[in-house]
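Renewal narrative, Specific Aim 1. Our central claim is that a sequence can be written position by position from structural information alone. The example that follows is taken directly from our test logs and has not been curated for this report. It begins with the structure tokens describing the chain, in the order in which they were read.
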């Protein structure tokens, strides 16, 4: 399974489909073939692995190890459960169950046809490898990463509004790499008016990355006709509303499964206050600025016991700066998301 996870990371982190890896094993435990999913409309990992067999007959009696439960749904491609059955695979082991109503059920289908199918193999590792996609599939909204860069005293800009650049080139390069791994980047109208950001993902040499996230702007103020966002490689999506749930629902419906919220403080605080943040990525520069330009504003925390607690996943040095990646800490009042009524909103789009 560890090898299947490694293979899955070859696939794109963005898009409506998850990263999935598969390994086919002979009865003696040797590897027959490997595969991974390359994005919506391409063969799924199991089918990709089958296509790499030296001979199709080698699949008969083989064991398939796949990170996500084989799908049981016909969309752009056929169901992986049927492909495994047709090939004669004798056993299937997977990490995490498919959360989609339409695409799930592959394991039960295989068992009903006499194939051993067992899940939960390295489940926590698999969950982490596709956490954004799983979160989106289970909640019916995009996975939200809140990102900001600030001084050690929590300022995102100087008193006169200047903010370029608080962090150094290594931190900024990391931001671009992370932008290139999501479906959308979201900012408020205040950020557009103050900074005129491009919101592109760029390579270290300054060229545009192969994948560009969709630029999204939320707010009531009109955007200048000369804004750099109108020249973004992807069409700009402006939302003249403060209803974040409505924006997330519309983005999810259009295929967005992961998004980067880059500010400014008003929008960032609104997402945090609404409990819509799944991950926080903070870049801290070794500088003190002072003044009123805080990275976050009011979060609706009247007293310290009400503070929004986080679990730190990693702390890394990037040049002179520090990058902290964290996630909301689980709470005793947390409840599982309600089941999705519309299966098309959560299944893997073939």
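The sequence written for that structure reads:
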């Amino acid at each position: 399974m560890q090898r299947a996870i490694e293979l899955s990371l070859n696939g794109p982190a963005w898009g409506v489909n998850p990263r999935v890896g598969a390994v086919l094993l002979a009865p003696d435990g040797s590897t027959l073939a490997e595969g991974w999913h390359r994005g919506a409309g391409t063969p799924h990992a199991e089918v990709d692995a089958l296509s790499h067999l030296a001979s199709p007959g080698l699949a008969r009696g083989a064991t398939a190890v796949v990170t996500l439960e084989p799908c049981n749904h016909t969309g752009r491609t056929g169901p992986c459960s049927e492909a495994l059955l047709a090939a004669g695979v004798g056993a299937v082991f997977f990490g995490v169950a498919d959360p989609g109503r339409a695409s799930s059920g592959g394991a039960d289908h295989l068992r009903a046809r006499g194939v051993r199918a067992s899940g939960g193999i390295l489940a926590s590792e698999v969950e982490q490898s596709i956490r954004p996609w799983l979160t989106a599939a289970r909640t019916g909204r995009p996975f939200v990463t809140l990102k900001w860069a600030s001084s050690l005293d929590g300022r995102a800009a100087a008193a006169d509004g200047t903010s370029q650049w608080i962090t150094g080139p290594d931190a900024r390069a990391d931001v671009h790499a992370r932008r290139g791994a999501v479906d959308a980047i979201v900012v408020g109208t205040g950020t557009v008016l103050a900074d005129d950001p491009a919101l592109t993902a760029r390579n270290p040499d300054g060229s545009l990355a192969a994948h560009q996230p969709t630029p999204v702007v939320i707010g009531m103020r009109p955007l200048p006709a000369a804004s750099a966002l109108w020249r973004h490689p992807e069409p700009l999506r402006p939302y003249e509303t403060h209803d974040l749930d409505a924006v997330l629902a519309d983005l999810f419906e259009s295929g967005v499964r992961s998004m980067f919220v880059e500010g400014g403080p008003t929008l960032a605080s609104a997402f945090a206050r609404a409990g819509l943040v799944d991950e926080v990525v903070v870049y801290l520069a070794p500088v003190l600025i002072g003044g009123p330009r805080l990275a976050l504003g009011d979060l609706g925390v009247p007293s310290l016991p009400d503070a929004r607690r986080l679990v730190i996943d990693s702390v890394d040095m990037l040049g002179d700066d520090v990058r902290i990646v964290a996630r909301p800490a689980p709470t005793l009042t947390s409840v599982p998301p309600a089941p999705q009524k519309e299966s098309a909103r959560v299944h893997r789009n073939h």
